[in-house]
Structure formats: C-alpha cells, structure tokens
Amino acid sequence: MVQTRGNLAIREREKQQSSHSQQYNQKTTVVTRRAELPGREKLLYLASVLVAVALCSIVAWRYVHIYDLNHQIAAAQSQTNQINKDIAQAARDEQVLRQAIVPTALSFGLVQATEHEPIFVNRNSGEDKQSPGADTDN
C-alpha cells in the first residue's frame, strides 16, 4: 500500500502499470499528520486562557460584592422602617400620656395653677413624710 500526501504523481504510475501488467492492485491512502504546536504558541494559549479565567473571576467577585451591598441596603431599610414604626408608636403613647396628665393630677387632689395665681409650696411639709434614709437633695 502506497501512502501519499496529496501527490497526484502516483496516479500516473498506476495508469502506466495497469497498462503493462496487472500483478497486484496498488491502493493509495492520504495520511494527514497533525503538526505539534510549538512551545511558545502553547504558552500563548495557556496565558490567554489564564487571563480569561482571571477576568471572569474578577467580574464574578464584583457581582457577589454588589449582591452583598444590596442585601445590606435591604437590611438597613427594614431596620429603618421598624425604627420609624417604633417612633410613631412612641409619639402616639406620648400624646395619650400628655392628655391623661391633667385628669390624673386632678384625681390625686392637685390644683391646677393659673397665670394670675401662683401656688406656693411649704418646704417643711414634704420633709415630714420622707423616710430617714431618703436623699434630701431633691
């Protein structure tokens, strides 16, 4: 069997031999050999793959960082909403307590002061009711 690399001259010989005598059939096959890549080209391909992987890793890391920031923003917004609800509840409670001060004080027997009549409190009246261990700097 004759191997050729695309050489057409073999076919002419076949024609010449077939005309003289046919003792055997000559078959030709085309063999394609892959040439090995040179070392520098292999290194170039390896370097380009490493650069591509590095770029993809950087982009993925940035997306993870952005996702984490969005998650932190959402958590901060939910905390802000909860604090605003607590502030609104405290404001309602304050309003209710402000409205309840005067009736509660009147029920304990206190007198409401007017602008023209000030109320005087005797200092000695409060000292008799204090316990002996109480702080007197009030």
From TrEMBL:
Residues 18-27 have a biased composition (Polar residues). Keywords: Membrane, Transmembrane, Transmembrane helix. The keyword Transmembrane helix applies. It comes from the Bacteria. Residues 1-27, 119-138 are annotated as: Disordered. The chain crosses the membrane at residues 43-64. This is Cell division protein FtsL. It comes from Saccharibacillus kuerlensis.
